[in-house]
Amino acid sequence: MPAKLRVKDVYKIFGDAPDKALDLLAKGETKEAIFESTGQTIGVQDANFEVEEGQIFVVMGLSGSGKSTLVRMLNGLIRPSSGQILIDNDDVASCSADKLRDIRRSKIAMVFQHFALFPHRTILENAAYGLKIKGVGATERRKRAMEALEQVGLGAWAESLPSELSGGMQQRVGLARGLATEPQILLMDEPFGALDPLIRKGMQEELLALQKSLKKTIIFITHDLNEALMLGDRIAIMKDGRFVQVGTAQEIVSTPADDYVAAFVADIDRGRVFTAESVATEPSVVDLDADTAGDAVKAMEDQNLNALYVMDGQEIAGVVTYQQAAAADRESGADDVPLKDVLITDYPSADADTQLADLYERASTGLPIAVTDTDNRLIGVVEPEKVFAQLSSETPTEAPQPEPDTVSEPDRQPAL
Amino acid sequence: MSPSDLLIIPFDDWVNTLVRDWLVPNFRPFFRALQVPITLVLNGLDDFLAFVPMLVVTAVLALLAWKYAGRGMAIFTVIGLFFIDMIGLWPETMTTLSMIITSVIFCAVIGIPVGILAARSDLMWKIVRPILDIMQTIPSFVYLVPIVMLFGVGMAPGIIATIIFALPPIIRLTNLGIRNVREDLIEAAESFGSTGWQMLVEVQFPLALRTIMAGLNQTLMLALSMVVIAALIGAGGLGLVVNTGLGRLDVGGATAGGVGIVILAIILDRITQGLGTQNQVQTVSLRETLVSLFRPRGKIATTEPGKAG
Ligand SMILES: Nc1ncnc2c1ncn2[C@@H]1O[C@H](COP(=O)(O)OP(=O)(O)OP(=O)(O)O)[C@@H](O)[C@H]1O
Ligand SMILES: [Mg+2]
To answer: What is its main location (chain B) (predicted)?
Structure first.
């Protein structure tokens, strides 16, 4: 897919002598050192990234890391000190005021952390603001704003004032106001930062649900890594105005680029980042009719497994455990105990993108989990211990060596 | 030994020369022309208020007081205005009222745009601010003389003196109101591609309106306090009644004029204060307006958008 937004070599220095600061930056000085010696603040340095159409690109970092500065440069609220910001092929960083206004009216909208709703306007008028600015006529404006409000489930509140709504509802109005002009790009600066955890969770889910149909290009700012991991198709981690790592949720969690990222990742809920697919292995199976319990025991001994899936043609018939198969084999004394006699038909299964957190319970049966596709065919098997190993993949390296810098050792990279 | 032994600056002569020999001969027609719009508005209002029967004016003011300041104030308005009429000062009160309204109209017409410009440009504010400081510290008697020399005596010069005296608060508070509009709202408006004008009309002005109305109220009060001084240079009305009483040592006459001014001041103050806290009710329909007209004031003012900030 084509890149909707391309950011090239963007720097933003706050202060009256950006050149001096840029020089020092090139010499490798840190943000603090530059501020002490020149009084110039590094807002953003060396930002380079592309966002594809329909993607959610999350920028995550601590307070003061330059997230707001970055996102405000994307719609020209802040002009960069140098670099290019290309939306389609227009450079927001250097275009005229007229052109910039045009881009803001037609292509890019913003949702704010503290909602920034106009207190003197009704919810409907708030949602219609962008359309009014564009010069859309009153009836058309009303209709489209109403549609946007209905998308976020607030149609009934059209005539209320913002002060009559709760925080979560106000932010939905903020979202509706952003969506009403039908922009291709949506900038969201910590949109859920001011909301209670529970409401925030609901809003995240709602945003993902909306995005399924809207397919906007979204730049989403947050300082909450869990939020970043949940929403982001790609995630950039920022520190002191610089990107320290850009990648998918799983890349960031499994291979943090440096200690800074690793420290973040250390206490996130890995069960929500990794899916069944990421720990599944090629299934090795036995056939219900062709093979006997003895064959299964032998196969398990060869592959050092505790259980095996049994197939009936293309269908999963069930699972056999080593214990039962071996016992049955021993008791009968013969070589031809049919698999049917030791088959467990109540086996655990999961979709490829089931989160590991949801596999805990299934894994605790001790049986391997069948990973199936939409046609219910076996595409992989998750060994229960793999689930727990992935969820607690800190432990093996941390036990002998408590130093934090061991976290990026390659041997603890999970299979992806 | 003092500096005056070394050098005497003939400051008063300089000012005399500036005003008498330069301003008056060269610019008198210009200053005379300035009065024209003021006279026009004033005469219109004065004729109108003289033409409308006393009871109608009272009814309108009482209704306004009821809507914006509650029932008690409406009753006070009726009693106060009846009292003024009964002590025989109704025509003078109407003259004063039209002078006040004219002054306030011109203060608003000049002050609000200047305040807006000052709010949007730091340079402009740097220029305007010291001028306002001077306007507010110079005793009003000081500029009465040059005003008389430039404009002559009469109603219009009186109003010009009043405007100079009453202008600063509306400029200051317009500037303040617009500068105090929340930064994130400005950013939001900008992010949707608002032009400077759209920003002003859609966001800044409506949100600053309460503060601007507070400025208007202060301007109005200052204008009322100039009534007596303006009468010194020929403006009529209640001020003249007070001055005449003063000249003749007629305590009764002076007090009657003073009481008239106080009653008028209280009524106008309460109505404009009410206006200031009310105008956050946006785009009310005609029906709502009528409903709110007959509703006690306390209930309307509960949703204050300003609280969010
Ligand atoms: N207008 C400004 N003038 C000077 N320095 C600024 C300005 N705006 C931001 N900065 C500085 O730039 C840096 C980045 O600020 P920014 O607001 O982008 O951080 P942030 O990541 O959004 O933080 P937060 O999570 O608190 O919103 C900070 O060091 C800040 O002090
Ligand atoms: Mg920020």
So the answer is: membrane
